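It is time I had a proper look at our fold encoding. Can you supply me with one protein entry, sequence and fold together? It will help me judge whether the discrete encoding reads sensibly. Leave the record below and I will have a look:
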Amino acid sequence: MRFVTALRERLAARRRPPLHVAVDQGDGPAVVLVHGIASSYTTFENVIPLLRPEHRVVAMDLLGFGASPAPPSATFTLDEHVLYLERTLARLRVREPFVLVGHSMGALIATRFAARRSSALTGLVLVSPPVYLPPDIVGDPVDRAAMTLYRRVYDLLRRKREFTLRNAALLARLSPIRDAFEVSDRNWNAFVLSLENAIETQTVITDAAATDVPIEVVYGTLDPFLVPGALRVIEKMRHVTVHRVHGGDHLIRMPMARVVAKAIDSLTAPRA
């Protein structure tokens, strides 16, 4: 009897999605929402109600964040994040093609997914994508200085654990979106390795160029994590449409949520 129970539990575990699926609701064209570093599915709390009436909305926590697992062997590269995303969508039997939406680091993961499996997608929506280039290939001195500064700041955040944890807790208390930002002892390893192996070693520009699906880019004009010069490289691609939210910052507040929802609708609307 004990053997049968253990076998059932093992089979159930194999059927369970690798990532924590917080939302799987609604009918219609599927939309998959991928949050960014040190966050959770609640990043999209203003977007989800706008989509549910006409879409199947799937939102999960990334590997190592929210309620998802953080395997000791995980390295939190872009490819590893994509692998767990693919496995989760397969277990959920998300019908293809679907719209993939990524916020912040989630935009980098979504673009890598698209480069690998563009046939699975109707389109991409990249929200507040932190596009960075190696400083030594950037011509504009202002953009070059900005990208050098970001890399120094990220290096500081990795090295000064107590400083990072203390300030992250303060930012979390100030955030208008619950659980939109968390760096703690629980997810420290996922945060540090995702920062180094996904954001700082990103391939978003080559990935965006490698896919032919329509890409909708949404960002706020006051987003402190964006470098205009790097973002312009993606904006110039012919399959990219840009939506600027004046006065918006890095978070998906309600004005930006409405723009994101419209961008998704444009990708799921029947083509003439």
